[in-house]
Design a protein that fits this description.
mainly beta; three-stranded antiparallel β-sheet; single chain
Length: 79
């Protein structure tokens, strides 16, 4: 949980089945953004940094025809 909208209410960033990242507004419950890629899924995420410098660090697996080809660490901006 992190205050993405800077309105004093923490918003929710989480992984859903299939490895897609979702961000929901904590005040309204509405979808703020989602991040999913064809032929890749996110295995684990964590938040690093403070304030406007916060980022998501994620372990992402890539695949083709349901065979895992590799894993990489990616940094995603929260803005």
């Amino acid at each position: 949980m992190v205050d993405l909208t800077q309105d004093g209410v923490e918003d929710l960033v989480y992984l859903v089945f299939g490895g897609k990242l979702i961000a929901l507004n904590g005040r309204t419950g509405t979808l703020m953004w989602s991040n999913g890629e064809e032929n890749a899924w996110y295995d684990e995420i964590t938040l690093v940094g403070k304030g406007k410098e916060r980022k998501i660090v994620a372990l992402r697996s890539t695949y083709n025809e349901n065979i895992t080809h590799g894993q990489e660490c990616v940094f995603l901006s929260l803005s």
